[in-house]
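Retro notes (design track)

What went well: tokenization of the new backbones is finally stable.
What didn't: we kept losing track of which sequence belonged to which structure.
Fix going forward: every design gets posted as structure first, then sequence, in one message. First example under the new rule, 262 residues:
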């Protein structure tokens, strides 16, 4: 595992940072370490929009209180950009561009650099948002310090952070196949369906949106439980507005809609 010292040193070099804090394992780890190293010179911000699951905003607030972070929500409006709503392969670019444009004035007042919880493993996936962030001056301290996703989780566990095994929670728009427009209604349906399934005790999941059909992705080990509780699962997803409920027998695959980009 990379030495935490390298990450701490890099953050000290930056002197003041604004951490894009989504509440996931990576950004939570970065926010925690930045607070350890820089104290009040580190500010964690959470972008609040229809693309963020309501539970994630609540958890960010709770984590900030638990860890004593300087934290504030910022409101983004990526849906107002037709290029984002179009939902082609560059959607994430426009989302991250919106985030940086909203956060830039705040970072300017702080005299701070915007930092994102991108890890080494993320560099191998289709992540146009990383390009948008880098073009606007954001930096990726976890990459610079050599942290993979597994490293982040191991270091988080070592530090006693409850986020060490938190399931990945990409933005809700990632549930919508490329080419299907992203709308407030679509995001609300996905959010409601996933919230209902989490209410049944399922931790790691995706509800992929195909019009009035929902395709559920859960870890292979959870598939039997889904079948055993079929009536509850169907009722939960239909309650969110879907007519058809299907189960993906290949199980949970983070980012699997990127395969359509070929």
């Amino acid at each position: 595992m990379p030495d935490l010292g390298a990450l701490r040193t890099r953050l000290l070099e930056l002197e003041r940072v604004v951490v894009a804090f989504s509440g996931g394992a990576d950004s939570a780890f970065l926010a925690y370490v930045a607070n350890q190293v820089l104290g009040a010179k580190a500010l964690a911000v959470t972008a609040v929009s229809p693309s963020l699951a309501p539970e994630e905003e609540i958890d960010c607030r709770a984590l900030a209180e638990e860890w004593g972070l300087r934290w504030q929500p910022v409101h983004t409006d990526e849906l107002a950009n037709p290029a984002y709503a179009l939902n082609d392969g560059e959607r994430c670019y426009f989302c991250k561009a919106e985030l940086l444009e909203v956060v830039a004035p705040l970072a300017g007042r702080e005299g701070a650099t915007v930092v994102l919880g991108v890890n080494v493993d993320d560099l191998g996936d289709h992540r146009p948002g990383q390009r948008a962030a880098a073009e606007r001056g954001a930096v990726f301290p976890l990459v610079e310090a050599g942290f993979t996703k597994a490293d982040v989780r191991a270091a988080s566990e070592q530090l006693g952070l409850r986020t060490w095994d938190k399931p990945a929670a990409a933005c809700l728009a990632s549930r919508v196949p490329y080419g299907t427009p992203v709308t407030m209604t679509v995001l609300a349906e996905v959010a409601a369906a996933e919230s209902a399934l989490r209410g049944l005790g399922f931790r790691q999941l995706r509800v992929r949106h195909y019009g009035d059909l929902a395709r559920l992705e859960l870890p292979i080990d959870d598939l039997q439980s889904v079948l055993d509780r079929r009536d509850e699962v169907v009722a939960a997803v239909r309650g969110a507005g879907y007519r058809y409920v299907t189960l993906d027998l290949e199980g949970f695959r983070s980012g699997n809609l990127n395969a359509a980009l070929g």
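Added context from the reviewer: The chain has eleven helices and seven strands.
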